[in-house]
Specification:
Number of strands of chain A: 27
Oligomer: heterodimer
Largest sheet of chain A: 6 strands, mixed
Distance between the termini of chain A: 56 Å
Strand order of the largest sheet of chain B: 4-1-5
Shape of chain B: globular
Helix content of chain B: 10-25%
Structural class of chain B: alpha+beta
Order of helices and strands of chain B: EHEEEHE
Distance between the termini of chain B: 11 Å
Number of helices of chain B: 2
Chain lengths: ~400, ~60
């Protein structure tokens, strides 16, 4: 019997990889392990609709078509180890499963504060559907929450909670929220809009203690200010789930290093046969920007990576001549993200954190507009507030020119 | 002939579908999504890709 392709991770990247393998002609067995009990679902609504409305898994589940009807889903099961040399994965019950190909799509987990004592309830994060459903139970009018972390998740949760009548306080380490992903102009505009809706910010601040026994009572800032609250939300970032590859000849520092065909590489840079990583967990180059290797936590990336992996892996397993042709085409996506906070609707392309300066390209500051993010003369990112068609027109222009061309 | 349905209650006009299937989806002058309710079978793969990249998961093939 043929060993299956094993996909480790039952979220967006896992589902899209299964679909892409079928679309690329692979008709053999596919087995997907998912640690969560739920079939793949869409995570962006977790900080918005799932908190604001009484929606359940069915409302956010990805539709699945006929092509993947025969995929074997093993949910509620974590994979503890992959042995790339023996082509075996071991699940958390100790069972071993042989594979013909393996795709790691284990994603991220929420980062947590390193504090000695935390209250036993009232502490929340927003990574999974279960997290979001637990948080929404406390988002009732008149309660007060403190959100630690002023990134996209923190700001989106703040906006959603405020609209529900919750008293919202955001504590962030930087001078303004969303500074790194958006730059100071747009970030300041977003803070002002939040404040106009009544969200309070304590920036340039660290939380040094979360006080309470059975329940959260307050948080203590590093400047000595104590803020009482009914619930506390940690939104201080995430960490890649790479531990299952410990013990292999791989580079898993800050993410799983893959090559420009998304194959997991050895320390010397050569790829392991038929082993791939997709999504937030993978560290990869994007040639249109530079040869810097990075993780990209944007929603379109798992889908784009899965398309590539489906083609390469199915051609490889079939021993097809198309493989040589496919692997000459480097994976080279255009990252994109969006965010909705109050009346503000952002849409961006490119890699904004590559920029060393920001220019207003269209529209007016503090209004609908398009910002351009530049590294030298190269446009490395664009972000629009509204003005969708204008932003989209810049999409194909983001990237770095080779040094020799300038 | 393919039939396409977009749930306009869900659609937030992000325009991601436009890049996958430009013959079917476009943003109008007010940045709102417009689409062809029917398309030739040759568009099937492009529309499938548009369904996948829709952030709101608002697009589907209609019966």
């Amino acid at each position: 019997m043929t060993d299956p392709v094993i996909i480790v991770g039952g979220s967006l990247g896992g589902l899209r990889t299964a679909e892409s393998l079928r679309r690329s002609g692979y008709s053999g067995p596919i087995r997907v392990f998912g640690e969560e009990p739920h079939a793949p679902y869409n995570r962006p609504p977790l900080s918005k609709e799932v908190l604001a409305e009484r929606v359940d898994h069915a409302a956010v589940a990805f539709p699945q078509g006929d092509t993947t009807a025969d995929v074997e889903w093993i949910l509620g099961t974590r994979v503890d180890h992959i042995d790339l040399g023996r082509n075996i994965v071991r699940d958390n019950r100790g069972e071993e499963h042989s594979y013909s190909g393996v795709v790691v799509a284990t994603g991220l987990r929420s980062r947590h504060m390193d504090l000695p004592a935390m209250p036993t309830s009232g502490v929340h994060s927003v990574r999974s559907l279960d997290d979001a459903m637990a948080l929404r139970a406390v988002l009732t009018p008149g309660t007060r929450i403190v959100i630690y972390g002023a990134g996209f998740i923190g700001c989106e949760v703040a906006a959603t909670a405020k609209k529900l009548g919750v008293d919202v306080i955001v504590v962030g380490k930087g001078p303004v929220p969303l500074l790194r992903p958006l730059g100071v102009q747009l970030a300041s505009d977003i803070q002002a809009r939040h404040e106009a809706h009544g969200v309070k910010f304590f920036m340039n601040s660290k939380i040094t203690r979360v006080i309470g026994g059975d329940r959260v009572e307050s948080v203590l800032l590093d400047n000595g200010v104590e803020i009482w609250c009914n619930a506390f939300v940690e939104a201080i970032g995430s960490e890649p789930n790479v531990e299952l590859l410990h013990g292999n000849d791989v580079d898993i520092e800050h993410g799983i290093r893959v090559d420009d065909n998304l194959r997991i590489t050895r320390a010397d840079g050569t790829p392991w046969p038929n082993a791939f990583a997709v999504g937030d967990v993978a560290r990869f180059p994007i040639p249109r920007f530079s040869d810097r290797v990075r993780r990209v936590e944007h929603w379109n990336i798992p889908t784009e990576m899965s398309r590539k992996v489906g083609k390469v892996l199915s051609a490889s397993l079939a021993g097809s001549a198309e493989l040589e042709d496919e692997i000459t085409k480097a994976f080279d996506p255009i990252p994109t993200f969006w965010s909705d906070q109050f009346e503000l609707s952002l849409l961006a392309y490119g890699l904004i954190d590559e920029a060393d300066r920001v220019e207003l390209l269209e529209g007016r500051e503090n209004d609908d507009c398009v910002y351009g993010y530049f590294c030298g003369d190269d446009l490395v990112g664009v972000c629009g507030v509204g003005m969708r068609s204008a932003v989209m027109a810049y999409r194909s222009r983001v990237g770095r020119k080779p040094a020799s061309a300038s | 002939m393919l039939k396409i349905h977009v749930d306009m209650e869900k659609c937030q006009h992000y325009g991601q579908c436009v890049f996958e299937a430009p013959a079917v989806f476009r943003l109008n002058g007010e940045d709102k999504l417009e689409y062809e309710a029917t398309a030739d079978d040759s568009e099937r793969d492009n529309i499938q890709l548009a369904i996948e990249v829709c952030p709101m998961q608002a697009i589907k093939f209609a019966e």
